[in-house]
Design brief:
The complex is a heterodimer of chains A (512) and B (395).
Chain A (H helix, E strand, L loop, with lengths): L1 E10 L2 E12 L4 E5 L4 H4 L1 H11 L8 E7 L11 H12 L10 E3 L2 E2 L5 E2 L4 H10 L4 E5 L3 H4 L6 E5 L2 H9 L2 H7 L11 H4 L13 H13 L3 E4 L6 H7 L9 H13 L15 E2 L7 H5 E2 L4 E2 L1 H4 L4 E4 L7 H6 L1 H6 L1 E6 L2 E6 L3 E6 L17 H12 L8 E4 L5 H5 L7 H19 L12 H7 L4 H14 L3 H18 L6 H9 L8
Helix pairs in contact in A: 2-3, 9-18, 9-21, 18-21, 21-22
Chain B lengths: L6 H9 L5 H11 L2 H9 L4 H6 L1 H12 L3 H10 L3 E4 L7 H4 L7 E6 L8 E5 L6 H16 L3 E4 L5 H11 L4 E5 L12 H10 L1 E4 L12 H10 L3 E4 L7 H11 L3 E4 L7 H11 L3 E2 L3 H15 L30 H6 L14 E2 H11 L5 H13 L4 E3 L2 E3 L4
Parallel strand pairs in B: 3-4, 3-7, 4-5, 5-6, 7-8, 8-9
Antiparallel strand pairs in B: 1-2, 2-6, 10-12, 11-12
Helix pairs in contact in B: 1-3, 1-6, 2-3, 8-9, 9-10, 11-12, 16-17
């Protein structure tokens, strides 16, 4: 007596499908589960037994064996409860034969038979869809999330009884028992243009706004430096409001990570806005990069395609900042474990804010009370690992109260976003058919191809490098930023004015 | 600290091995008063090793065991040395402004008055006749006008300037790298005696301290802190003088240097300072006028000659030029801003701040244009840039 149900799980960030095989045989009555199970999976047997009992179904006194195949892959999560229960019911004959064929089933069981949401539904459903599965039964709470995969017929179930009823009814009646959960209109423009923080709230600060505009248009890393209370954080928080929207594919990628991290809700089952994270400086390296025996995605991966904002950057632990090096370069995080290494996406826009010295007032010697050594020590956290990888560095200044009282700023997020979108379209056009997306993603050969300079510009760049002591790495970053400034200008070629402006934003530290 | 008999414990604190003002404050915070610290050390409280580390605390406790604060204090008084603690009213106001004011200073003689302008005259130990001449001239002239001359009583410029001051009947104060009762170098014994009578020998090290090399950077910081203006007479490109100048810049003191011939290695340091934006001290009179401007601008009392200073313009507080002296400030700030480069001053400013100023003149100025212009000016060498801040060397 043998039955099989299709289910799935995630390993790290990778979804895969799993067959839940159930067999009844003669022997001592017991419930045995095999197939490299994590502790929470092994406990499943107890939940299933009690949920069935409370549904007035008692297990027969036989040797029940459950195998999760492929058996060599480590299984985690509680999503196997429902498929195991339905598999057992199938072998018992409580569910008619072949009723669950071709349906992906996921869900955790409560002892009273209710079905509870589980993380990672969306990527598993997506994986199933890629493998030709067209139906899925998932917890009601996760139904909307699963329905993001439009080709999937999603059945959201609330309890075990409902699931049995659905499976036992005829094909044509099924719809009346549980209607299909339809894909939402998540990708429509109107839904996505909600602006919560607007740049219009910021008075003055032309430098920061210009920097934010360029950073957003080319997805460049941005470092904001200035004394305390100058609106560094305000600007960073408003960045998402002018970033180009996520493409459909990007939405799905981001949503998959959020699903695995258990961060989706029924109200917001899809992530359509670019993520924005501002972890506290006490964050551990593991929380940033991802960690655990089977690593959970960290803040870096959750910020994928969005903004990671580090306020008071030098306060972050040295180890934490060092961690950022490779991800900023490779746009992914590598986490090594004895049984293999995990690669998580980390395509982020890093925005850092910091004071120029411990007291914050350098180079205003009337107010700065720091000794040269303490300034050096303070900046040493940033100078090596991070500064080299920043594209833009802006200096913020304190506003005079007089200017503040004048009220609102001149430029709104909507206006800025329009400019960003124009530059974005130019980039899309230019990089069609290449591996590049934003100007910031250009590598050396990309820079050679797309950031070509005319003779006069070449001469200017040469002069700049000679006079201002610019390294090769910094020069490449300079060209990428120039490219974005030219795009914002609508210019086909990078002009002298674009290079000059980019030089004005190049990352540099006092005394470094 | 009112109780006179308890003051010996404050002296005891400064005598602890390898304990600077920071450590002393730490101990005081932990145990309350100097006496409590002493008693705790006598009891060999385990808290010490937590606070200072094992090795250091062992040294401290060893020293405590053999110490007799009462006797040391009496000996100090017998040597006519006064101890001035941070909490005392007579503690110099200029020192209070330091990032880390010393916990106590020792004086043989007097302390410089807070409201009398003070100029530090410093320079090379091995100086040229030119240096000897100028040091004496500046020292004598300034002292005769009532300016206190501060220096380190070292061989060469320091001592010569102080001798000049005394010759003119003025006051001069020596900040020593040894205890206030130790005359170093011995060749200045006569000078030391006069200074103790006509001014004061000041030290942050307890009486009897030897002139160890490591004491001198801290000594230099005090020289600069006690002065309103630092005058470098003669110095090599890399020398002990630059340490004092560094302190001066960080304490936002004006720095002036006496220019020399470019072929003189002993003037390299001074010329370099001027090239970096220090004021050029062309004559004692000139410098004295500058000092007057300085005092007036700071609004401080005790101006030596506020009246004969050049025309003074009101300048907003943020405009006050510090760091390197700006000999033509009065003129510059009055000048009308016609082009962007006029918005760049000798104080480093960010592009944003320069842009804000520029906007006042050119209403429709756009930030990106300002940035471009600034970069161009930098490339042309008309202004300087460091770490994203723009400034200019004097006019």
């Amino acid at each position: 007596m043998f039955g099989k149900i299709l289910s799935g799980s995630v390993f790290g960030l990778k979804p895969y499908l799993i067959d839940v095989e159930v067999d009844f045989s003669q022997g001592l009555p017991c419930f045995v589960m095999v197939g490299s199970l994590g502790p929470e999976v092994r406990e499943s047997a107890e939940r299933v037994r009690i949920a069935l009992k409370n549904g007035n179904i008692s297990l027969p006194a036989v040797h029940i064996a459950v195998n999760l195949s492929p058996a060599d892959m480590r299984k985690t999560g509680t999503g196997f409860d429902l498929p195991i229960a339905l598999g057992v019911l199938g072998v018992m004959g409580e569910i008619r034969e072949r009723a669950a064929d071709g349906i992906l089933i996921l869900g955790e069981l409560g002892l009273n038979g209710e079905i509870k949401p589980v993380p990672g539904v969306m990527p598993i459903v997506w994986e199933a869809a890629r493998n030709g599965v067209r139906y899925c039964m998932v917890p009601y709470e996760n139904a909307k999330e699963a329905a993001v995969i439009e080709e999937m017929y999603v059945i959201g179930v609330k309890n075990l009884k409902e699931a049995m009823e659905y499976l036992n009814s005829k094909e044509e009646e099924r719809k009346s028992i549980i209607p299909r959960t339809l894909p939402g209109n998540w990708f429509e423009e109107k839904e996505r243009n909600k602006i919560t923080c607007d740049f219009i709230d910021i008075t003055g600060q032309d430098a920061l706004k210009r920097g934010a505009l360029i950073a957003a248009a080319g997805f460049h890393h941005l470092l904001i430096m200035g004394p305390p209370g100058t609106g560094k954080t305000m600007v960073a928080k408003r960045l998402p409001s002018i970033l180009p929207p996520l493409s459909r594919e990007e939405c799905l990628d981001v949503t998959a990570i959020y699903s695995i991290a258990g961060r989706l809700t029924r109200e917001e089952p899809v992530i359509t806005a670019r993520p924005f994270f501002n972890p506290h400086h006490g964050i551990s390296p593991a929380a940033l990069a991802g960690g655990g025996r089977i690593p959970k995605p960290g803040v870096l991966s959750l910020s994928n395609k969005g903004v990671l904002f580090l306020d008071e950057m030098p306060e972050f632990g040295r180890e934490t900042l060092d961690m950022l090096r490779e991800p900023l370069e490779e746009k992914q995080v590598q986490i090594a474990r004895s049984y293999g290494s995990f690669t998580y996406p980390a395509d982020i826009m890093l925005v850092g804010a910091m004071n120029p010295c411990p007291c914050g007032y350098y180079p205003d010697m009337n107010r700065c009370r720091c000794s040269p050594e303490s300034v050096k020590r303070y900046l040493s956290h940033i100078s090596g690992p991070i500064l080299d990888r920043m594209d833009l560095c802006l200096k913020a200044e304190k506003l005079r109260i007089r200017d503040l009282q004048k009220g609102k700023g001149k430029t709104s997020s909507a206006e800025m976003k329009e400019k960003v979108m124009m530059a974005r379209r130019i980039q899309e056009e230019r990089y069609r058919g290449t591996k590049y997306t934003f100007n910031s993603t250009l590598d050396v050969s990309g820079i050679r191809e797309f950031c070509r300079l005319g003779r006069s510009e070449e001469a200017l760049a040469g002069e700049i490098c000679g006079k201002l002591d610019i390294s090769a790495r910094a020069y490449h970053r300079l060209l990428k930023v120039s490219r974005t400034i030219a795009d914002l200008d609508g210019a086909v070629d990078i002009g002298r004015e674009h290079i000059l402006e980019a030089v004005g934003y190049r990352p540099a530290l006092p005394g470094a | 600290m009112g109780d006179e008999s308890k003051r010996c414990y404050a002296l005891f604190l400064t005598m602890l091995p390898e304990c600077g003002s920071v450590t002393i404050r730490k101990l005081l915070q932990r145990y309350g008063s100097p006496e409590e610290v002493y008693l705790a050390a006598i009891r060999k409280e385990p808290g010490f090793s937590g606070l200072l580390g094992k090795e250091h605390s062992e040294k401290v406790l060893d020293m405590t065991a053999g110490a007799d604060p009462q006797k040391s204090y009496e000996e100090m008084l017998k040597n006519e040395i006064t101890m001035v603690i941070e909490s005392d009213e007579i503690y110099p106001a200029r020192l209070r402004k330091m990032e880390k004011p010393p916990y106590a200073i020792f004086v043989k003689g007097k302390l410089p008055e807070d409201d009398i302008p003070a100029v530090a005259i410093i320079g090379a130990r091995n100086c040229s006749p030119y240096g000897e001449y100028t040091a004496e001239e500046f020292g004598a002239y300034l002292a005769s006008r009532g300016v206190n001359i501060i220096s380190g009583m070292a061989r060469g410029i320091d001592g010569i300037a102080q001798r000049g001051a005394l010759r003119a009947g003025g006051h001069t104060y020596a900040v020593l790298g040894s205890g206030a009762d130790v005359c170093y170098p011995a060749s200045n014994r006569d000078l030391y005696g006069k200074i103790c009578r006509e001014g004061g020998a000041i030290s942050i090290f307890p009486p009897g301290s030897a002139p160890l090399a490591r004491n001198f950077p801290a000594r230099n910081a005090i020289v600069s802190a006690l002065s309103d203006l630092i005058l470098v007479i003669e110095a090599r490109a890399r020398s002990g003088t630059s340490n004092t100048v560094e302190h001066a810049l960080h304490q936002a003191k004006e720095v002036y240097a006496v220019p020399g011939r470019i072929t003189d290695r002993l003037s390299d340091g001074c010329n370099l300072l001027i090239r970096q934006g220090a004021g050029a001290a062309l004559s004692p009179e000139d410098l004295y006028r500058e000092l007057g401007v300085l005092k007036n601008r700071a609004g401080g009392g005790g101006s030596p000659s506020g009246n004969d200073s050049p025309e003074e313009e009101k300048r907003p507080g943020e405009e006050r030029v510090t760091g390197f002296g700006d000999t033509k400030k009065g003129k510059r700030s009055g000048a009308k801003i016609r082009e962007l480069s006029d918005c760049v001053t000798m104080t480093p400013k960010s592009a944003e701040m320069i842009h804000e100023r520029w906007k006042k003149v050119k209403k429709d100025a756009v930030f990106e244009e300002t940035v471009r212009e600034l970069v161009l000016l930098t490339l042309d060498g008309r202004i300087l840039e460091e770490g994203g801040w723009y400034y200019r060397k004097g006019e």
